């Protein structure tokens, strides 16, 4: 038998998925508990909703690396879109309600995972811009296309593919043997490699080197 906390999570998730109003009373009635039980476990209704959203969101962010950063970035994009289309109420909760100057704590792990994928791409000489900037640009495009597809009667997956490739082309290049690395891409590559393996550099030396490489990457 499920405990009260699990029943509350399930009740909130079912209400969100159905598009119904997620009120404290509706959640508690569905879970068969009183409001103080909800407050005991989650602090508030918003705390419960954040927990539900975080659980659903982590399902698509947990992607094992294939060893190919470009494939991983494409897979991450497609999974992001699928999550939004399969769970539009969750997605609207995460990205459809924004407050000025307040990043969403629930989506922060996904953003961090995206930065890690771009850092891996930088280590292979594929990055045109710093990993943090690349993550911001790709995430903005990914969220925008997902909200667009949610609003369409028939989601245009080809549009998603085109936007994905255009967004990736803006931050990545594929190194080839006959194309020399640019100063910026070389600096970004070294930045990523030193970040992964600083060797015997002291913290001060790493900081100075990082500052110099960031300047060269501009």
Automatic annotation (TrEMBL):
Record feature DNA-binding region, as residue ranges: 23-42
Sorted UniProt keywords: DNA-binding, Transcription, Transcription regulation
Domain called HTH tetR-type: residue spans: 2-60
Keyword match Heme: no
Gene3D superfamilies: Tetracycline Repressor, domain 2
Domain of life, per lineage: Bacteria
Record GO terms (molecular function): DNA-binding transcription factor activity; transcription cis-regulatory region binding
Coiled-coil regions, chain positions: none
Protein name (database record): TetR family transcriptional regulator
Source organism of the structure: Phytohabitans houttuyneae
């Amino acid at each position: 038998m499920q405990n009260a906390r699990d029943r509350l999570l399930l009740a909130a998730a079912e209400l969100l998925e159905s598009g119904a109003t997620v009120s404290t009373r509706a959640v508690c009635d569905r879970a068969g508990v009183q409001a103080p039980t909800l407050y005991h476990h989650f602090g508030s209704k918003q705390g419960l909703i954040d927990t539900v959203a975080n659980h659903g969101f982590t399902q698509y962010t947990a992607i094992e690396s294939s060893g190919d950063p470009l494939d991983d970035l494409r897979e991450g994009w497609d999974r992001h879109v699928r999550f939004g289309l399969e769970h539009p109420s969750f997605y609207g909760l995460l990205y459809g309600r924004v407050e000025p100057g307040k990043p969403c704590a629930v989506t922060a792990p996904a953003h961090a995972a995206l930065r890690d994928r771009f850092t891996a791409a930088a280590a292979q000489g594929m990055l045109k811009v710093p990993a943090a900037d690349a993550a911001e640009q790709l995430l903005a495009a990914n969220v925008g296309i997902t909200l667009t597809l949610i609003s369409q009667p028939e989601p245009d997956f080809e549009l998603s593919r085109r936007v994905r490739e255009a967004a990736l082309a803006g931050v990545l290049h594929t190194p080839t043997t006959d194309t020399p690395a640019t100063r910026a891409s070389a600096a970004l590559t070294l930045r990523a490699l030193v970040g992964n393996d600083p060797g015997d550099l002291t913290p001060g030396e790493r900081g100075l080197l990082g500052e110099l490489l960031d300047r060269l990457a501009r």
